[in-house]
Write a structure and sequence with these properties.
Helix content is 73%, strand content 0%. By secondary structure, the chain is mainly alpha-helical. It has a domain of 73 residues.
């Protein structure tokens, strides 16, 4: 049923999904930039010792922090979406049982009648 609260819910869900995608893109960009820096810093230890340098400790910590923050954000958004669906379900009760507010799917605004143009 296309009631007003469902239309708003659909828009809010779209914004939430977009925000989750944006956070994922930012997180991937941060991790990619960090990996590029780590590869540059790996040059001297690789040439001298044949292995990665100790700077990789911070890289692994930062990757874990970014992944944890992304996961926490997605879980928070998902929890809010679940709560919102509960609210939407509660708001669906009156239209399903009483018919108020009316279903607005396919409904168009009535146009006022056009005034008659006087002819001389």
């Amino acid at each position: 049923m296309a009631t007003p609260h469902r239309i708003v819910d659909g828009a809010a869900d779209g914004l939430a999904e977009g925000a989750k995608g944006l956070i994922g893109t930012i997180a991937d960009g941060l991790k990619g930039a960090g990996e590029s820096l780590m590869r540059a810093l790996d040059g001297p230890p690789q040439q001298l010792l044949g292995r990665e340098g100790p700077h990789r400790i911070m890289d692994r910590f930062n990757d874990g922090f970014v992944d944890g923050a992304r996961h926490a954000y997605k879980e928070t958004v998902q929890a809010l979406q679940i709560t919102g669906e509960g609210l939407q379900s509660a708001l669906d009760h009156p239209p399903q049982n009483v018919g108020l507010p009316p279903d607005i799917g396919g409904m168009s605004l009535p146009l006022p009648p056009r005034p008659q143009i006087p002819r001389w």
